[in-house]
């Protein structure tokens, strides 16, 4: 459906995101839930990854830990070669501002700020120079060049999410994380959002990690990571809608196999590495 890994930028071979043995447990003792169980992965810069899995499988936890919005109990997260672990609260916030963009299902725009002000807010918070021409260029790119002074509640859901995309793009982060970015949108707005994300990877070399439960959304990605019970349960390169839907339907089978021993899990981890190299070298 899409050309993948063409139009390479120089950053393409670099590792944008790395997780080593990341675990996260919620609750304690009796009611402890292992939301993430020893997850390791490596994503090259300039790739679009979808994360899928049943509800409660740890997708949001994975994204939050990888984006520095939550802290893993163990393991390390490395963004663009810099370790995220070991920062205090303000250090972590600084880290996030410099290297991470985040797109939420519910947009998370500031209701009293205009489209343009919302877009430049991360730059302001990071005390970075605001380049108005560049901001307007990004807003024009997402189709909001005529809406600079509108407030969020004067926009449709699709337009709000495009502001959120502009806000994530304007800081030129190492990785953009999106948790169900199309979950609240109609089909057409969802497609616009997915095209913009795809384009930012393909044409501008950004790295995007997107949680979705929608096989159509996942088909816009270069590859899909499947999660089940807080563990990686497989992956798929060059996903198609049908292949993703099929794999999701059988994800339970994979988990059942994995529960019988650790071999399946290791095999999957190995598989991931192979694909990582595949993505790294392009097509
Ligand atoms: P997903 O996004 O795949 O639906 P989550 O990452 O939200 O899954 O949740 C993974 C597991 O961790 C679930 O069992 C969920 O109930 C639990 N969980 C997530 N966040 C919290 C929290 N703040 N407190 C307690 N349990 C949580
Ligand atoms: Mg979730």
From TrEMBL:
Pfam families: ABC_tran. Signal peptide: none annotated. GO terms for cellular component: membrane protein complex; plasma membrane. GO terms for molecular function: ATP binding; ATP hydrolysis activity; transmembrane transporter activity. InterPro entries: AAA+_ATPase, ABC_transporter-like_ATP-bd, ABC_transporter-like_CS, ABC_transpr_LolD-like, MacB-like_ATP-bd, P-loop_NTPase. Transmembrane segments: none annotated. Keywords: ATP-binding, Nucleotide-binding, Transport. Residues 260-283 are annotated as: Disordered. Residues 17-254 form the ABC transporter domain. This is ABC transporter ATP-binding protein. It comes from Streptomyces radicis.
């Amino acid at each position: 459906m899409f050309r993948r890994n063409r139009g390479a930028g120089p950053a393409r071979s670099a590792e944008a995101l790395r997780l080593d043995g990341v675990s996260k447990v919620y609750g304690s003792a009796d009611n402890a839930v292992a939301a993430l169980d020893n997850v390791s992965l490596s994503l090259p810069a300039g790739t679009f990854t979808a994360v899928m899995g049943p509800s409660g499988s740890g997708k949001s936890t994975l994204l939050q830990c990888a984006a520095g919005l939550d802290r893993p109990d163990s393991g390390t997260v490395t963004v663009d070669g810099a370790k995220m672990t070991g920062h205090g609260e303000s250090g972590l916030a600084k880290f996030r501002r410099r290297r991470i963009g985040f797109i939420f299902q519910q947009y998370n725009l500031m209701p009293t700020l205009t489209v343009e002000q919302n877009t430049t807010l991360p730059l302001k918070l990071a005390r970075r120079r605001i380049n108005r021409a560049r901001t307007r260029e990004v807003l024009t790119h997402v189709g909001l060049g005529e809406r600079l002074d509108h407030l969020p509640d004067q926009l449709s859901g699709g337009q709000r999410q495009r502001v959120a995309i502009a806000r994530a793009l304007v800081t030129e982060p190492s990785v953009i994380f999106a948790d169900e970015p199309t979950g609240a949108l109609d089909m057409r707005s969802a497609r616009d959002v997915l095209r913009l994300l795809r384009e930012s990877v393909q044409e501008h070399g950004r790295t995007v990690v997107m949680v979705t439960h929608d096989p159509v959304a996942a088909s816009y990605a270069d590859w899909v990571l499947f999660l089940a019970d807080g563990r990686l349960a497989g992956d798929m390169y060059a996903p198609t809608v049908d292949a993703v839907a099929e794999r999701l339907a059988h994800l339970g089978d994979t988990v059942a196999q994995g529960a019988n021993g650790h071999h399946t899990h290791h095999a999957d981890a190995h598989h991931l590495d192979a694909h990582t190299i595949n993505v790294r070298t392009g097509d």
